[in-house]
Amino acid sequence: MADELVHYEVRRGIATITLDSPHNRNALSAQLRAELTGHLKAATADDAVRVIVLSHTGPVFCSGMDLKEAGGASADKQGVNEFPAILQQLWTSPKPVVARLAGPARAGGVGIVAACDIAVAVDTATFAFSEVRIGVVPAVISVTVLPRLLPRAAHELFLTGETFTAPKAVAIGLINSAVPADDLDAEVTRYTDMLALGAPNALAATKRMLQEPRSNDLDAVFADMLALSARHFGGPEGQEGIAAFVGKRKPSWVPAED
């Protein structure tokens, strides 16, 4: 559709969701939020989709909430009320999500980056938690951002609103890789190819395991992890993976080559 702001395409098990609202720097307008939500639901529900890539058109990945829509609205009418659901979709998606940034991210856009499992950016991209500079608080995005960042960096960057570079974003844990623009797509493909080698249920279970808090009771933690491990060793995917390894063939879940 010519008037849609988010596009969706599936190829070889990779669902690519593309933000296409360059006129407002891919700001999180009501229409963009609705379309992004719908496409994330579609990708999650499609058994043929193994990995989700979140990309964009234009020079900016995402500038955060649409401030033109936010102006004049009361607290209960703000678009930010819908934002936690989007971040939760990304964070809890059973399919790994890779963010592809060919340009900067700001505020809520950085929250989206943090909610993805892997993030790759051009080395010229910049980032900022600019909320305090316009009188608001980076509260919602803190849920996904703080687990990624070094604590000192979080205090520095949340409180100052300072713009920082892609190499610094790598150093503090916000993104995985910063590469020259000509290498961006190859780097994204490198990650998606590796992710596609993982078994779907094993990937989903591993993602949940990485996100779950752990108690200080070491015996209980080992018991839970043993149960999880044994269940997957003895399950259909585990048995298929073992048989494929012994038989020196690819497991059944690996996408076929074009």
From TrEMBL:
Family as reported in the entry's similarity comment: Belongs to the enoyl-CoA hydratase/isomerase family.
Protein name: Methylglutaconyl-CoA hydratase
Record GO terms (molecular function): catalytic activity
Pfam families: ECH_1
PANTHER family assigned to the protein according to its UniProt record, in alphabetical order: ENOYL-COA HYDRATASE, POLYKETIDE BIOSYNTHESIS ENOYL-COA HYDRATASE PKSH-RELATED
InterPro entries: ClpP/crotonase-like_dom_sf (IPR029045), Enoyl-CoA_hydra/iso (IPR001753), Enoyl-CoA_hydra_C (IPR014748), Enoyl-CoA_Hydratase/Isomerase (IPR051683)
UniProt cross-references to Gene3D superfamilies, sorted A to Z: 2-enoyl-CoA Hydratase, Chain A, domain 1 (3.90.226.10), Lyase 2-enoyl-coa Hydratase, Chain A, domain 2 (1.10.12.10)
Domain of life of the organism encoding this protein: Bacteria
Annotated signal peptide: none
